[in-house]
Amino acid sequence: METLKMSSRMSLVQNQILPLNFKPYPLIHNSRILGVYSTKGRTFSFTLTCKLNTVKGNKPSKEKSRISVPGSDGVAPPVAESEEGSVGNGGRKVEEAKNGVVGFGLLKKLPRKVLGILSNLPLAIAEMFAVAALMALGTFIDQGEAPDYYFQKFPEDHPPLGFFSWRWVLTLGFDHMFSSPVFLGTLALLGASLMACTYTTQIPLVKVARRWSFLQSAETIRKQEYADTLPRASVKDLGVILMGDGYEVFSKGPALYAFKGLAGRFAPIGVHISLLLIMSGGTLSAVGSFRGAVTVPQGLNFVAGDVLAPSGFLSIPSDAFSTEIHVNRFSMDYYDSGEVSQFHTDLSLFDLNGKEVMRKFISVNDPLRYGGITIYQTDWSISALQVLKDDEGPFNLAMAPLQLNGGDKKLFGTFLPVADDNSPNVKGISMLARDLQSVILYDKEGKFAGVRRPNSNLPIEIDGIKIVIADAIGSSGLDLKTDPGVPVVYAGFGALMLTTCISYLSHTQLWALQDGTSVVVGGKTNRAKGEFPDTMNCLLDQVPELVESSSPEEPNILSGL
User: Fold this and answer.
1) In 10 A of CB 486, how many CB atoms?
2) HSE of 304, CA atoms in CB hemisphere, 13 A
3) Membrane-spanning regions, if any (predicted)?
4) Cα–Cα distance measured from residue 480 to residue 477, given in angstroms and rounded to the nearest whole number
5) DSSP conformational letter for 442
6) Which among 252, 242, 239 has a CA at the least distance from the CA of 213?
7) What is the mean pLDDT of residues 537-558?
8) CA 521/CA 254 separation, integer angstroms
């Protein structure tokens, strides 16, 4: 028989503090006793939490019964709903007294509310669309140009879309979109939403999936997405079949629990982490890199730090910025049609002591990497022609790019004066070149004179002057870059591909219970729900059927025969 033990304080409260009625509910351990206090026509409800002891285990209770009643002033407090669902506010006042600050509970709830807002799916989708729109706008607006360019491109008198003038571009930093505060702020907000979603949704789902428990009720198992009953079967045989199919199986008495594909539950967390890596790497590239471009004639050199310019506030130069880069030679390859197919540069790198630390031939899609600096072959031009005039020289004639009417072909030209220096109209021999293969010459009247190949040493006479094209000196167009975010972005994309594939794994959970000679089986899965019943039927068909043993009398009859 169970008895309810309460301290003598209860009777004291009943006898000395106005009428107090309570009704206990026996045989419920750690139960709450409901009571009503009434005075002057006012009532309030309260709860009493107590612990029951049985006669069999008559041990002193570790927890004393507690009761909350109003003061002896005879004024009943207002009725309020407590956090645990009971009526009364005595517990709330005690908590406020402990904290010493009214409203401390609201401060504790504030982070949860913020997480709830950030993990809102419509907000995350809006953030993704905002990032995509800013990226598209960054491709529409030319990046990194001088302010005069935007004054002409987006004038105030006729702005695009009727309002988008240069003030918008320069004020919001859209001339360097991917390092602008607007873009980085939107990206940070999207990252916060991903982290909030991971913390509030994905991690709890994984925790729940990792907990394995047995269902002791056949009715509960039959309420699963899939349920079936195997007559004359053993739950142990079912466990063997499930282990052969890759399930992790746990059994306890007549109950069984099995699961597989738990990695599929971790995959969404991995996808979110991968996206965060990609965004972090892109942000690091935008605010922590150096970039620069230079066109260097063959035979000259430059210092890497003189070309590289910081792109953001996290850009920190390294020791490799003092490296001197020398262009040993520039060459070009051609198609049969004469068009340029590829161009190469022989580069040497020297340290501060003048020691060559690296040498490499680079070409398009085959850069040089040293000390965190990457040098790309991106362009070419012709810097000068070496010309012999009447066996004198050679003279270096600087080549200048010429404007063409449309097309992407290049044309370079230079001029060799041959007229009297005192004449007001200087005339001479004009030379044009599309590439390093050949040079076209014109006389001082502008008439075609001939074509010569550099290094052919074949002279041509124009207006009584003997001309020899000794060499055409090319210039290598190089792009230099340091980007600490590239490894992070590559790691993010690699992890994204891997976790995306893993996310297609189905997380399947099965429960079974031996009910006499039958086995009740139920289960659920988070993917491939249409194929799940067929898969389960194939597995359950492999469970052997139990055969009833013969009666004791049958062996005697057979032995008598």
Assistant:
1) 16
2) 30
3) 117-141, 182-201
4) 10
5) E
6) 252
7) 69
8) 12
